[in-house]
Write a structure and sequence with these properties.
Length: 249
Amino acid sequence: MKTIKTMKYLTLFSMLAVSHLSWADNAFTPAQEARIKAIVRETMVSDPSILEQAIVSLQNYQENKQTEQVQSFIQAHQKELYQQPASPRMGAKNPLVTLVVFTDYNCPYCKQFDPILEKVIQDNPEAALIIKYLPYKGETSVIAAAKATAVWQQQPDKFWALNDLLFKKTGMHTAETINQAMAKVGVDKINSGDAQIKVVKEDYNLATGLNVQGTPFTLVGNQPISGAIPYEQLNEIVKQQIALAKQKK
């Protein structure tokens, strides 16, 4: 059964092939052009797999192009991705592989994925985790990201306890639930301001450059992963990346 996306491609290809032979303008007589259109139409009707093959080829081309763009962006922004001191991090000081996760304290999938990320880092001492914020879910997403960044900058030893509490909240945060979490950890006196908002905006710009479409989004080395995946799958990817890094040493 074809997906909606594939059907859209089929419609597009059909329209292009049958009614828009612009490359042939002035190259054929009207009768020749009509015959060419008829041949194209007959071919598509008799063997629709031709269109499907063209669609698969186009999709593969687009995916490869996007992968190339992502890799180029990563190479051009190594410092911002991996060496930003304002971004919370845990794990190895000199890791063989670094995970960079774009997350949101209001995102239900991020709430599921955060403990998986932390366990993977605990189980792989040669890996590290860096948190970037992509507050998609409204004002309290931005507030929570800015306050968490301030805690990391001023009392990093309290950050992970706050991070866990913020992710454990069921549903959307309010300003009150964020303040309650900070008070429980003992960092309610810490304030966020323009400096922390600037960090969150920089994270957002990185996400835009990586063409991130939602949270969570994770880079494992240079390998992008969209969405929350099971522990077993993520752990296997991390181990593979560590093995590759060792081979290159």
